[in-house]
Amino acid sequence: MGATNHISTKWKGGMAFESNNPSGLNVTIDAGPEDGGEGKGLRPKALMLSGLAGCSGLDVASLITKMKLEVDDFSIETIANLTDEHPRYYDRVAIEYHFHGSNLNEEKLQRAVDLSVEKYCGVMEMFRRFAELEIKTVFHKK
To answer: Where are the transmembrane segments (predicted)?
Structure first.
């Protein structure tokens, strides 16, 4: 059996929860006012998208460093479609990698994205089990 993650999530009253993390930091989760919460925490489904972008982003950042690539700015836009029927889940997710710089090595940056998407990112693999993924890389030359 492989490694495990154990997360403890405690109800804080109302619709709010606090969840720990192996990093030692906590995250607050709350529903919006339309669902009886106060909107003082992160929404669970959106948090999944942050996890997806963060996981892949860590891969790409690591490869940018290893490949000694020049990138002034890098961001990931994650746009997900929720199903209409309950339980509502993401059935389609578009992930856009945006690179900014005056000396972008497009070929190597695309390779870094491909390696993350196809080989390294475990969260991407989890999403692939329930959603159709659309990957796009955009280069913004200065």
So the answer is: none
Coil, strand or helix at 106? helix
CB atoms within 10 A of CB 117: 20
Q: In what side-by-side order are the strands of the sheet with 27-29? A: 9-11, 17-19, 27-29
Q: Which two tokens stand for residue 76?
A: 């990931």
Phi, psi of 5 (to 5 degrees): -115, 135
Domain ranges of the chain: 1-42, 44-141
- Tell me which residue of 45, 46, 130, 48 sits closest to 91, measured CA to CA: 130
pLDDT in tens, 61-104: 999 999 999 999 999 999 999 999 999 999 999 999 999 999 99
Q: How many residues make up the chain in this entry?
A: 142
- Which residue has tokens 């690591």? 62
Q: The tokens 């992160």 sit on which residue?
A: 42
> With left for phi above 0 and alpha for psi between -120 and 50, is residue 134 left, alpha or beta?
beta
The CATH number of 44-141 is: 3.30.300.20
